[in-house]
Structure formats: structure tokens, C-alpha cells
Specification:
Largest sheet: 5 strands, antiparallel
Distance between the termini: 127 Å
Helix content: 40-55%
Number of helices: 7
Radius of gyration: 37 Å
Order of helices and strands: HHHHEEEEHEEHEEHEE
Number of strands: 10
CATH topology of the largest domain: Helix Hairpins
Oligomer: single chain
């Protein structure tokens, strides 16, 4: 049995040390309970104070979480200092710093989206209900959280975009203003009077009721196309996608009718073929070149 005496002595020492530490452990538990209560009070106080600023719900939740984390860290530091008197605050802070670096490297993408979400919520570049396009994805913003932005595509699918994607890429906010400008290209045959065709197109679009006539209609001859003289037609209407399709349809129909009524041709694509060698022709079963035809 003497072989186990050192083990028994060590266990006895540990037990005595544990019993002697019970008052400190109890005091540490009391500190943690008080920390829990303080964190709840602090979260409610922050929510009451920030709610008056009309911030987004996710941003309010973020402030509550950060305040709660700060209170808990402070409480854990105090409890650790009570239970382990030999551990100094500097040692605790050093251990926390090393642990924070390790966690930061392991969850780099999560923290990147987290910080991007905070910046998006503070800057408010877009609002719930806005139609945006980013990195080839277009849809209506349904919700902005700390990590993701919920985008409902116009075809009905829900897309979750990481906030870092919105923060580091160009975002086209199509409904930032109630009105936006639309463009359309119209081609007219080369045989037609270019100035007269322009006037006909302008009057046709100006006569529509579902466009913003206060901002005016613009028609410009833009270039000599392959089969036509091309015009750029510009008008203003509502920025919602439905308004875009509705007014574009009205403009196309009105221009087509006006040009038809004026006898102005909208040409089909023409193509001229040139051959380096004479092209043989067959007439009535007799083959001949175009020189003999």
C-alpha cells in the first residue's frame, strides 16, 4: 500500500485545496449571476435608447448583443480573478488576445460578412423593398441581417447574398428614386426622311399617358446601322420593374403605329453578298456565268 501513498497524499491535497476554495468559488458564482442580471438590464436599456433612433431591427439586435458580450466579459474577468487569485488581469487579457486571434483566423469569412453587415446598416445605401442588382443577381430586398441580405428575384426565387459581396461590389439600386430613365433603339430605312422620322417618333411617345411628360421625351439619331438609321428614344417613368415593362410595351406599340401611319418603313435586316469570282447561274437546265446571262 505504501506504493499508493504519494497518490493518496496528492488527492488529499487537491481535496483540501478544493474545500478551501469553496468560498471563492461560491463568490465567483454569485458574480456570474449578478453579471447575467446586469447583462439583461443593459440589453433592455440599449434597446429602449436605440429604438427611438428608428434604426433597423437587426442593428438594434447587434447593439444589444455587443453590450451583453461586453458585460459578460467584464463579469467573467472579475469572477476569474476571485476564484484564481494567482492569475493577474494582464495574464487574462493576454490569453483572451491569443484566443481572439485564433478565432478570428478560423472564422475570417464570418467576421468579414459581420463587419460588412454593420457598415451596410449604418450607411443605409438601400432599404427593404428596393430592387437592386449586384454581381449579375437582380431582385427585391426582403431583409438585411448581420451576415446576409435576402433578395427575392423577380421570378420568385429567394437568394441569400453574403454582405461582403454587397460591400465590395458595385450595387445598382434601381428603385433608389421613384422615377428613372429608359432607353430604346428604333431603326428607320435609309430611303426615309431622317428628320421627319425623328419627329414622328417623338410625337408618338409624347402622346402616351403612362410616362412622365414633365421630364420630356428625347429622340436622337445615333448611328448608321447595317440596314437602318438608328434612333435612341429616351423617356422617364416609374422605377419599379413592372413600370419598365409596361411603359416599354406602350412605347414600342405607339412608335410602330405612328411609323406605319406615316408610311415610314422599319426595315428588315439587309445583307449584300459580294463574290470574287463570277457566280454560275442555271436557267432552264442550261448553266452559264453571270457574264453570259
Amino acid at each position: 500500500m505504501k506504493f499508493f501513498d504519494p497518490l493518496f497524499e496528492q488527492l488529499t491535497t487537491l481535496w483540501v485545496g478544493f474545500v478551501q476554495s469553496l468560498p471563492l468559488i461560491g463568490l465567483g458564482i454569485i458574480v456570474l449571476i449578478m453579471t447575467w442580471i446586469a447583462a439583461m438590464i443593459a440589453r433592455r436599456a440599449v434597446r429602449a435608447a436605440v429604438s427611438k433612433a428608428k434604426m433597423r431591427r437587426a442593428l438594434i439586435d447587434l447593439f444589444q448583443t455587443l453590450v451583453g458580450i461586453f458585460v459578460w466579459i467584464l463579469g467573467i474577468f472579475i469572477a476569474a480573478a476571485i476564484v484564481f487569485p494567482s492569475v493577474t488581469p494582464a495574464q487574462l487579457i493576454g490569453a483572451l488576445g491569443i484566443g481572439g486571434i485564433a478565432v478570428g483566423l478560423a472564422f475570417k469569412d464570418i467576421f468579414e460578412n459581420f463587419m460588412a453587415g454593420i457598415m451596410i446598416m449604418i450607411r443605409k445605401p438601400m432599404s427593404i423593398g428596393d430592387v437592386i442588382e449586384v454581381d449579375g443577381v437582380q431582385g427585391r430586398v426582403e431583409e438585411i441581417t448581420i451576415r446576409d441580405t435576402y433578395l427575392r428575384q423577380l421570378s420568385g426565387e429567394l437568394v441569400l447574398l453574403p454582405n461582403s459581396l454587397l460591400f465590395t461590389n458595385a450595387v445598382d439600386i434601381k428603385t433608389d428614386r421613384p422615377k428613372r430613365r429608359y432607353d430604346l433603339v428604333v431603326g428607320v430605312a435609309y430611303d426615309e426622311d431622317a428628320a421627319a422620322a425623328r419627329d414622328v417618333i417623338q410625337k408618338a411617345v409624347e402622346g402616351l399617358d403612362d410616362i412622365d411628360t414633365d421630364k420630356g421625351v428625347e429622340v436622337y439619331a445615333r448611328e448608321f446601322g447595317a440596314s437602318s438609321i438608328d434612333y435612341t428614344v429616351r423617356w422617364w417613368a416609374g422605377s419599379a420593374p413592372k413600370e419598365m415593362h409596361k411603359t416599354r410595351s406602350s412605347v414600342v406599340i405607339a412608335i410602330k403605329k405612328a411609323l406605319d401611319d406615316a408610311g415610314i418603313e422599319i426595315p428588315y435586316p439587309y445583307r449584300t453578298l459580294t463574290f470574287k469570282e463570277p457566280l454560275p447561274l442555271i436557267r432552264g437546265g442550261t448553266e452559264a456565268t453571270d457574264e453570259n446571262a
